[in-house]
Amino acid sequence: MAVKSISDGYHTVTPYLVVQGAATLIEFLTSAFEAKEIRRTLHPQGGIINAEVRIGDSVVMVSEARDEFKPMPSSIYLYVENTDATYKRALQAGRTSIMKPEDQFYGDRNAGIKDPSGNHWWIATHQEDISPELIERRLKSLFASKEKV
User: Fold this and answer.
1) Where does residue 107 fall: left (phi above 0), alpha (psi -120 to 50 degrees), or beta otherwise?
2) Contact 92/74 with Cβ under 8 angstroms?
3) HEC string of the chain?
4) Any bridge partners for residue 6, and if so which?
5) Tens of pLDDT along 26-67?
6) Is there a contact between 120 and 112 (Cβ–Cβ < 8 Å)?
7) What are phi and psi of 120, to 5 degrees?
8) 63 Cβ partners below 8 Å, 6+ apart?
9) Backbone φ, ψ for residue 43 (5° rounding)
10) Is the C-alpha dihedral spanning 110, 112, 117, 119 positive or negative?
11) What is the pTM of this model?
């Protein structure tokens, strides 16, 4: 039997976060985003060499930064059932807000938080299917109103 090019339960693109404090980040992902830890591989000298958590239907990989692999903050867009509730959980987990929940011109309600490793998580709930033309009109209107202020 042939081996699949993408393992079951994974998608074509999988975020890989290289951070200082990988265990702390995993604790945060578990409490704020209801992540489920799939596996954790420890480096012989200590720390996490690779861990995987599942958030919803997606896997996020996490590794402890080392000399040859420097920390690299990222930005991740995370779809959830309820932006406001997830944002509140993230704040209760001790994180920093970078944007309060707000309805956006492109049809999503989203908010932003910064995790303990400096990554930005854009928490979103899709609320409205809209055409590219309507997005463009709303965007122009949004920026026209900001120029008047």
Assistant:
1) left
2) no
3) CCCCCCCCCCCCCCCEEEECCHHHHHHHHHHHHCCEEEEEEECCCCCEEEEEEEECCEEEEEEECECCECCCCCEEEEECCCHHHHHHHHHHCCCEEEEEEEECCCCEEEEEEECCCCCEEEEEEECCCCCHHHHHHHHHHHHHHHHCC
4) none
5) 999 999 999 999 999 999 988 999 999 999 999 999 999 998
6) yes
7) -100, 130
8) 16, 17, 18, 19, 22, 48, 49, 50, 51, 69
9) -75, 140
10) positive
11) 0.90
Identify the CA nearest to 54 among candidates 23, 71, 74, 33: 33
Spatial contact of 126 and 108, defined as CB atoms under 8 Å apart: yes
Tokens of 47: 């720390």
- Note the pLDDT tens digit of each residue in 59-95: 999 999 998 899 999 999 999 999 999 999 999 998 8
Query: Dihedrals φ, ψ of 2, to 5°?
Result: -75, 145
Contact 37, 30 (CB under 8 A): yes
Cα–Cα distance between 63 and 43 in angstroms, integer? 10
Angle 44-50-54 from CA coordinates, rounded to 5°: 145
Reported as half-sphere exposure (CB side, CA atoms, 13 A), residue 119 has a value of: 28
